[in-house]
Amino acid sequence: MDNRNIFDLMDQHFLKHQEDKKIPGVAYGLIKDGELVHSRGFGQTALDSNTCPDESSVFRIASMTKSFTAAAVLSLRDEGMLSIDIQVDEYAPELATICRTDSGTRITLRHLLSMTSGLATDDPWADRHLDATAQEMNDLYQRGALYAFAPGTHFEYSNLGFALIGRVVERITGRRVRDFVDERFLQPLQMTSTTWDPPTHHEWARPTRVQDGAIIPDGLEPLDDGEIAPMGGLWTTVDDLARWVIWLNQAHHNFDARTAQLSVASRLDMQAMHS
Predict the structure, then answer these.
(1) What confidence tier does 1 reach under pLDDT thresholds 50, 70, 90?
(2) Nearest to residue 7, comparing CAs of 32, 52, 38?
(3) Which of 32, 107, 190, 194 is the right S-S partner for 236, CB 3.0 to 4.6 Å?
């Protein structure tokens, strides 16, 4: 099958997905041999717009943000600044209450990165608290948390865990995750359309929801970047995200690109199964 046929099949698939799931607009791309070889979009970036999404349209990428936060942690590990097997509250003492569980096991960065901390699943709570302040999160941490199981024994998705990771990065570097990620990854990879704050100068996908079978505006403005943003705060484009994916995949070819600071071994570690 030649590329044109593959592209046509992709387009048919995403068009059907967009229609079946009542998604106002989608944009997607295909990467092959280290480059973005095909991209397209369907629908609208906003309900009152005739603009069709494309590779330069900005979408909030939600939990794909976690790969950037994880890269920040592993970059610090590469430098010997931290260990992912040291208890989290050793780096951020204010997390002691939430990180010491009934089982007696204290959670580590490895637990948080691999979703084995035992923290209970918290969707969609986290999405509506992206702009939480440091003090609001400190108050939450002091109250402790509900654990679904002893750390290291099972898998359960936790957004709050990545807020804890963000706090550790800040304690180690003296900088917020957003600033560290911008300097270490976004700028070197020339991801110039990728931001932590809601976009104002790009064509961007407006939030919507489905009510009684109809797509309507969400009614709420996108939240600003806050303490929970390391779990899902980034906005980006197909073109920018392709740069990230291509760079990560170069590790499989032992390509040690120094345009951004993360070792081949750590990039491979990010793409391996962990339990």
Answers:
(1) low
(2) 38
(3) 194
